[in-house]
Design a protein that fits this description.
Blueprint (H helix, E strand, L loop, with lengths): L9 E7 L6 E12 L6 E7 L6 E3 L9 E3 L1 E5 L19 H11 L11 H5 L14 H12 L31 E4 L2 E3 L3 E11 L5 E8 L4 E8 L7 E5 L5 E7 L3 E7 L5
Parallel strand pairs: 5-7, 6-8
Antiparallel strand pairs: 1-14, 2-9, 2-11, 3-6, 3-10, 4-10, 7-9, 10-13, 12-13
Helix pairs in contact: 1-3
Bound molecules: calcium ion.
Length: 264
């Protein structure tokens, strides 16, 4: 984005409304249909083609920014089917109980590339888990393995509820500007909403970037402002399957006309 002074008697003076404090916020959301498939995940990645990734300040200078790709993890397999790691084996066996006990004890950690946590967090069974790994998940897995409960497709929380709490703003590293695709969990043959988040330093005026996704797994992309009342202006091109081009002017400008002295 460039600011072009208008010719003639008047020029356009654009001023940013009060600069925002350093903050993490959603700047946009993407909404996809998820194509029915049996794959573990779909990546959404920043690419430097056909245009560079760039964040600019009010004077149109590029700003150092870190870009973090995202991953949509699909709900695959059966609740409690864990042995064979990552994707499960498709059947129940004693080793599933051994594996869930290892997760609950913290001896193993569910991988983030597959829905291992979702299948390990099986209790309460009625809701496919509660976001916590505990002894009740071991009991429920044993019931699936013993055939006491009918098997259920993977469902419920895709990640632990007890995630780390972000440090207070003041403790964050200065100059750590970042744009991140939020990772999400989704069922296949459904829809998924993926946030685009920005950790800003307060001087950003506009961001533009290109994202790629696998059009065999995701489709019908829609990109919208996370907060339509923010005054930001979003332009998104989703015409080409697998590619999303975004220009997001983050802050509203107050535009006023000012008489130039020499032409008075
Ligand atoms: Ca649980």
């Amino acid at each position: 984005m460039t600011i072009v002074p208008a010719g003639g008697v008047f020029s356009l003076i654009e001023a940013a409304e009060g600069e925002e404090p350093t903050a993490q916020k959603q700047i946009a959301t993407m909404n996809f249909t998820t194509v029915t498939n049996n794959l573990p995940n779909a990546a959404i990645t920043f690419v430097n083609s056909p245009v560079d990734l760039v964040t600019r300040d009010a004077a149109s200078n590029p700003l150092l920014t870190r870009y973090v790709d995202g991953l949509i993890v699909f709900a695959q397999g059966l609740e409690g089917d864990l042995a064979g790691r990552n994707a499960g084996s498709g059947t129940f066996e004693a080793a599933d109980v051994v594996q869930v006990r290892r997760f609950v004890a913290g001896l193993d950690t569910p991988v983030l590339t597959h829905n291992e946590f979702q299948r390990a967090d099986s209790a309460p069974a009625s809701v496919g888990g509660d976001g916590f790994l505990s002894a009740t998940d071991v009991v429920q897995t044993r019931r699936y393995v013993a055939g006491l409960d009918p098997s259920r497709s993977a469902g419920g929380p895709g990640a632990a509820n007890s995630g780390p709490i972000a440090p207070p703003e003041a403790l964050r590293e200065a100059g750590s500007r970042e744009i991140r695709i939020g990772s999400s969990n989704a069922s296949t043959g459904s829809r998924v909403i993926v946030p685009i988040e920005m950790r800003s330093n307060g001087d950003e005026m506009a961001v533009s970037f290109v994202l790629r996704y696998d059009a065999a797994k995701l489709g019908n992309a829609i990109v919208e402002l996370a907060d339509p009342s923010s005054g930001a202006m979003l332009t998104a091109n989703v015409d080409e399957p697998g590619v999303i081009r975004v220009l997001n002017r983050l802050r509203q400008r107050v535009v006023r006309r000012q008489r130039e002295g020499s032409d008075g």
